[in-house]
Amino acid sequence: MTKSTQEDEAPTTMTVKDPSMVPTSSGMADGGADTFVDEAHGKMNKWEEETEELSEDVYSLLYTAPFRSTAFAYAVFVVMFQWGFAALAMIDLIDFGASNPLRVPKGVDIQVTIVQALALILAVVVQDDMIEGFAMLNTETHFDHAHLGTSTAKWFLSAITQILEGLVMLLITFILIMQSASVNNALLNFAAMSFIWTIDDAGFALAKRGFVTDKIQVACEEVVNLKLSAPSKNHKKLKRFLFVLTCAVEMAGFGVIVHEQRTGQFLSPDTIFVQFGDSFDPFISAYSGVYVKTSKMIAGRAAYVKNKGMHISMIAFCKEEKTWTWVQNDEYFWLLDDKDSLEEDDHRIDPCAGWRVKSEETDSYDIREPSAWFVLNRASDTPQKFDHFYLASNDCSEGEKSLCSSKHGSCENNVCACNPGRYGLNCEFEEPCLALSVDLRQHSFPEIDALDVLDVVSDDYELLHNTNGMPVEVYHRPVYVAEYTTQRFDVLLFTGRRWVITDTDGMHEFRHRLDNTTQITRAALADYLLNTFHAGHSLPFSHYFVSEKMDVGSPSDALTPTGLKWYKAREKPNQISKLGPEFSDPIFDEEEVSSWFSESIIISPQQAILVDTVLICSVCGKDNSCLNLHDCIVETGVCNCRPGYLGKLCEWATPCEEDSDCNGGTCVGSQDRCGECPDGSYGYFCELGTNSSVAD
After folding, report:
1. Domain presence at residue 634
2. Which of 213, 234, 262 delimits the end of a domain?
3. Which residue has better confidence, 550 or 673?
4. What is the mean pLDDT of residues 337-347?
5. Which stretch, 162-166, 424-428, 490-494, 535-539, has highest mean pLDDT?
6. Which PROSITE patterns does this one have (predicted)?
7. Structural domain boundaries, residue 441
8. pLDDT single digits (tens) 439-460
9. Residue 167, domain member (yes or no)
10. Are 276 and 299 in a shared domain?
11. What pLDDT score does 606 carry?
């Protein structure tokens, strides 16, 4: 059949359902020909008003074209092409299994929220496939299928496919718009989706203009010419209802997401771990540790706090400078109380006032995104880039990304509970060594100047336990003590980035809490360190020796200070009074180790100097063998040293004497050891081997 023939026959395919639309013979008899014509025109106009056209898209072609025709195959191809785009977009947009599967921004500005709302409403207006599909279902019972290749099954196939396509396209549009972090992104995403959701219309228009084949063009023209009798007066009401319902569902989803954004539900993580460097301000590193997200929002972003007693430090966003800042102020304690209200003009929530650390300029809602952080150099009152800064999520409830390995612990209320034998913030370490000692191959800690009196610190330290027998932790590291006298303990503890050696005489806050007649006990010291001590607040707090830095993730990152270099701390001359704005840059040696200061205790007048002292774990065992081939008594953790060897691990061989027989060998004075051992013997004193006269 030719195109012209089809066009001529098209009007005859209309089905007239209403007999009243046909002019009666009585009308012709009573009113003549003119009356008959007027009546016919009037009823035909009424018929045209009560008919509708099929939508001009390939979904209508699915209904009208015969199954085995090229037009039907073309319609299926276009539909599959459109659905392929939709499937690829959906796979790329959704992160299945994630806590935020739609990848919604953690927060957006108010203008973005407004544009998102308008774009979602506009999407329903221009994306009418779903509503047309519902309308098509409602029209089916009013149409005679005795035309072309139509059937009830194909009618439902066309309508349901169109409905599903409309729903999927609206869902993808919704996700894309809600993923937009700026106005431009929202508009661009909306424009991109308009291309995909009009593929069915474009495919039909292309075929209708004859760009495919003549047969498919004729089939498209039949869709255009085909008239449907109106289903009922409720048809328009149904369209309006579906439009309103679709808008309501989209706006409900929009409202839920906006509420989640405004209340910080997407502002993960709930906890962060921060380690500050100690350049320009050596006490800043004392505020390292875990910061917890509060229920309060500042500048539309999460605020993180760390508290010890009544001492609060906070990391929040400064809207004026567009930076994340760290401030320390006891007034921020109220942030921990969920019952308190948040007022925008409340002076207590100003992260722009008195900051000591800040990030690079950013609009980010995620505190982890800034890459550069700065510390305030109080001498010059200018920000200086940190020598070291570490910030990362400390949530143990992040699925496969969890820091809390199932082999080492379990995540309980977002806190890693360690299995027996594990230790650390995320159970990343084995249990700490029970005792530390100076490696005798090096030297003991040198004398110190404390209150103009020469003194020494201990060479041996034991793990401090609380009254429940658990190791005492400070900054997520164990504390070691040495009972120097009944009224003094030497204390070895971590302060956020470095280990320090002090004593209870230098912990003036601790001594102030005790009566002068009260004996200092391990239990009292443990209680103070667990519940009150803070290396940044508990001043005056004397540091006699300071270790090299122990940065998170570096090779030196460990549970104990074994193997670290040590430096003798000092205070700058004439800096005995409380540190203030006149505080000048700390002095660094070649290893860039910061000087450490006390408010009222003169440590040493010289610069921080490297000392030839190294600590070792002094308890032998499976993972800490005795040195120089000595045996470990596992039950006691003590090495059985042979004569001539000293140290907790038998690490040091005493110098041989020039006249000693060295078990048959010869003493080499320049090396302080025996040499030229008899055949089969070896060791510092030729004490090992088949011919040795010393029992192993």
Report:
1. no
2. 262
3. 550
4. 42
5. 490-494
6. EGF_1 (PS00022), EGF_2 (PS01186), EGF_3 (PS50026)
7. 432-617
8. 999 999 988 765 455 578 899 9
9. yes
10. yes
11. 41
The angle at the Cα of 14, spanning 10 to 15, to the nearest 5 degrees, equals 155
Out of 150-164, 210-224, 626-640, pick the least confident.
150-164
Strand 409-412, strand 382-385: pairing? unpaired
In a domain, 205, yes or no: yes
Q: Give the CA-trace dihedral at 602, 604, 608, 610, to 10 degrees.
A: -140
**Residue 436 pLDDT > 90:** yes
Bond before 269 cis per omega within 30 degrees? yes
Q: What is the pTM of this model?
A: 0.69
Stretch 488-500: mean pLDDT, rounded? 92
- Reported residue count of the chain is 696
Among 6-20, 308-322, 518-532, which is the least confidently predicted range?
A: 6-20
Burial class (CB in 10 A: 0-12, 13-18, 19+), 322: middle
Calpha distance 312→332 (Å, rounded) = 6
In-domain check, residue 644: no
CA dihedral 376, 381, 382, 386 (to 10 degrees): -20
C-alpha 433, offset from chain centre: 33
Does 62 lie in the same domain as 165? yes
Both 304 and 442 in one domain: the answer is: no
Q: Are residues 90 and 202 in the same domain?
A: yes
Asked if residue 33 and residue 164 are part of one domain, the reply reads: no
Same domain? For 443 and 588 the reply is yes
Per-residue confidence (pLDDT) for residue 584, from 0 to 100: 33
Amino acid at 460: D
Structure tokens at 448: 């110190």
CA geometry: angle 511, 512, 516, nearest 5 deg = 70
Q: pLDDT-derived band of residue 608, with 50, 70 and 90 as boundaries?
A: low
pLDDT at 310 (0 to 100) = 59
User: What DSSP line would sit under 419-468, residue for residue?
Assistant: PTTEESTTS-EEPPPSEEEE-TTS-PPPPEEETTEEE---SEEEE-B-TT
Sequence-distant (6+) residues with CB within 8 A of 16 are 22, 47
Residue 276 has pLDDT above 90, yes or no: yes
CB 393 within 8 A of CB 411: no
Phi and psi at 345, nearest 5°, equal -100, 10
* Whether residues 226 and 359 fall in one domain: no
Q: What is the DSSP letter of 461?
A: E
With CA atoms as reference, report the closest residue to 444 among 613, 653, 618.
Answer: 613
- Which of 617, 641, 676 is where one domain is finished? 617
Cβ-based neighbour number of residue 336 at 10 Å: 14
Structure tokens at 528: 């103070």
Query: Which residues are registered as beta bridge partners of 490?
Result: 482, 503
Q: What is the DSSP letter of 470?
A: P
pLDDT in tens, 306-338: 876 556 789 999 989 999 999 986 555 445 544
Residues 486, 557: one domain? Answer: yes
Gap between the Cα atoms of 260 and 113, Å rounded: 13
Between the alpha carbon of residue 598 and those of residues 29, 454, 525, 580, 603, the distances in Å are 121, 17, 20, 12, 8
Tokens at 446, concatenated: 């040198």
Residue type, 612: D
Q: What is the pLDDT of residue 6?
A: 39
Count of structural domains within the chain: 5
C-alpha 114/C-alpha 142 separation (Å) is: 43
Report whether 74 contacts 61 (CB < 8 A): yes
Contact between 73 and 58 under an 8 Å Cβ cutoff? The reply is: no
User: Residues 379-391: pLDDT tens digits?
Assistant: 788 899 998 999 9
Based on the number of CB atoms within 10 Å of its own CB, is 371 exposed (0-12), middle (13-18) or buried (19 or more)? exposed
Give the amino acid at 233: K
Which DSSP category does 124 fall into? H
Token pair recorded at residue 131 = 């509503």
Q: What percent of the chain has pLDDT over 90?
A: 31
